[in-house]
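Lay summary. Proteins are chains of building blocks that fold into shapes, and those shapes determine what they do. In this project we predict the shape from the chain. Here is one chain we studied, written as its sequence of building blocks.
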Amino acid sequence: MRGLTNYHLSCCVNTLLQTLSATWEVADVLERWETGGVRGDSHSVPLQLKNVLAAMRSDSPQHVPHRDFLHCLDRNCVRLNTQHDADEVFLSILNFVQQQMDDKTLALEIQDLYKISVETHLRCLDCSSVQTRSSYLLSLPLHIKEDHNSLESCISSFLEEQELRDINRCFCAQCGTKTPSKQGVKLLSLPHILCVHLKRFRSSRVYTRKLDCRVSFPETFDFSEIVRDAFSTDFAQNECKYTLYAVVVHSGYAMYGHYTAFIRHRTNQRWFYADDSHIQQASWEEVQKTYGGRYSDTAYMLMYRRGSKEGGQQPELSS
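And here is the predicted shape, written in a compact code that computers can read:
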């Protein structure tokens, strides 16, 4: 693994680059991209991402050109010398890839790695009419309670039906007005890479605060065992098992803090801790300390890969 120096408050992007490097499927797609005709390369996020990921995978002793990537993001309004939200920057990078790659087939391949296809049902409580809409997410945003949570309980809550009343009422075409309703989500398909966003920040009119409450998460889990009735009738995937391979960690407070990452190595399956330029071997027990509660370093984003095997090897799980 290659460390990345902190350059103008770049810990957020450094951490995301470590997770993207561990998501080798992204670099594999970018390597197939013919970039000879790309114009304005200093403004092209996917081109600079391709370069930096290739350098991070290289055995060459030369420095990793992540500064070029950082300046490229700055030209695309993800500013240097600014505290950023990791999930927002992650989604921005994926959006830039879609917008700026001239090979739209490959761009869609990268998007499809993360795409969670869902079907939203909105049932009017006055006339019982149902509106259905299909959409997709690139990360799974999970609300957490100010108490003890688990990944499984957060996913279940996300997929539960919610009653919408008062200011949350929705327009019903059948009734011709806003009415109380129930909204539910069904899964149409699960992605190869499941990015989970633990929503630890709460905003009010006065300030934003961070929730350090406990959120436990497993090294492996089976989606079908958590929410058996959350799948659409059109859901056709057989494999729903996921293995954790990266954790984005936030330490500090809402208005100022620091990002680091735990990464599972592709070859030897060991955990490593990446803090900007510093890389050290870690353990699953150290990853578990990011659950929150007792420690201020809390997991903020989780990266899971579908299937129980990584890189053709069975991971040695310690839990």
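What the prediction tells us: DSSP finds nine helices and 18 strands in the chain.
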